[in-house]
Amino acid sequence: MASDRRAVVLLSGGLDSSTTLAIAQGEGFDVHALTFRYGQRHEAELAAARRVAAAMGVGDHIVAEIDLRMFGGSALTSDIEVPKGRAIEDMSSGIPVTYVPARNTIFLSFALAWAEVLEASDIFIGVNALDYSGYPDCRPEYIHAYEAMSNLATKAGVEGRQFMKIHTPLISLTKGQIIERGLGLGVDYGITVTCYDPGDKGEACGQCDACLLRLKGFSENGIHDPATYKVEASAIA
Q: Would you state the pLDDT for residue 55?
């Protein structure tokens, strides 16, 4: 039986968002998953999002179409090289070129609109402030400000029928802690795609920031990453 506690969960098909979805389900929410085809350079994460939604029994999964390529400004939406082989300590400062301008603000706006229609008071997003401290839209102060704004921006909020809560269960966790939490909830990380520059069949490059952090997280848990890599994960420096 579906819960009457509805929540919109932003689902990219990656490790963090899949874990966030599992957490929302574990807390008893009836999950409505929202994925974006936003002009990213590959389709692998969209296929992964569909796999994850199906595997986790999500009955309502929308893929919204927006095209951020018209603006560019990111290695994920334009012809800018994805950084490879960076040291982990170098990822915690500055804003990397994989930042997509205002992406979380745009995504949360769609989630807010859908939540109002669903009469849902909860939105889940898998942002993390530890992995990428340079991402301005992953910080706790940003989430708090957006949550305050969301309660001023909707008819339901103004009429007092809805108080929106934005859940960020991963925001203060390391990648290793995120994976540990997801494994405990039964997340199949083998069907997720985290890589910024995957191959034609969705295989991970093993050298971008996202891959290196993911591999570090699995290593911290003493287990092999079940994702498919262009080279064996054990051979990646």
A: 98
Assess contact for 75 and 208: CB atoms under 8 A: no
- Quote the pLDDT of residue 131: 63
Name residues whose C-beta falls within 8 Å of residue 87's C-beta, 6 or more positions apart in sequence: none
Residue 1, pLDDT score: 39
Collapsing DSSP to helix, strand or coil, 154 comes out as coil
Closest by alpha carbon to 84, among 216, 213, 207? 207
pLDDT value for 230: 87
Minimal CA–CA distance to 17: which of 165, 120, 138?
Answer: 138
CB burial string 140-165: b at 16+ within 10 A, e below:
eebbeebbeebbebbebbeeeebebe
We report the CATH number of the domain holding residue 138 as 3.40.50.620
Residue type for position 130: L
Whether 108 is covered by a domain: the verdict is yes
237: in domain: no
Q: Which pLDDT score is estimated for 237?
A: 45
| Residues of the chain under the 50 pLDDT cut | 1, 235, 237
> Smallest Cα–Cα separation from 171: which of 140, 144, 133?
140
Predicted TM-score (pTM) of this structure: 0.91
Q: For the purposes of burial, counting CB atoms within 10 Å of the CB of 2, is it exposed (0-12), middle (13-18) or buried (19 or more)?
A: exposed
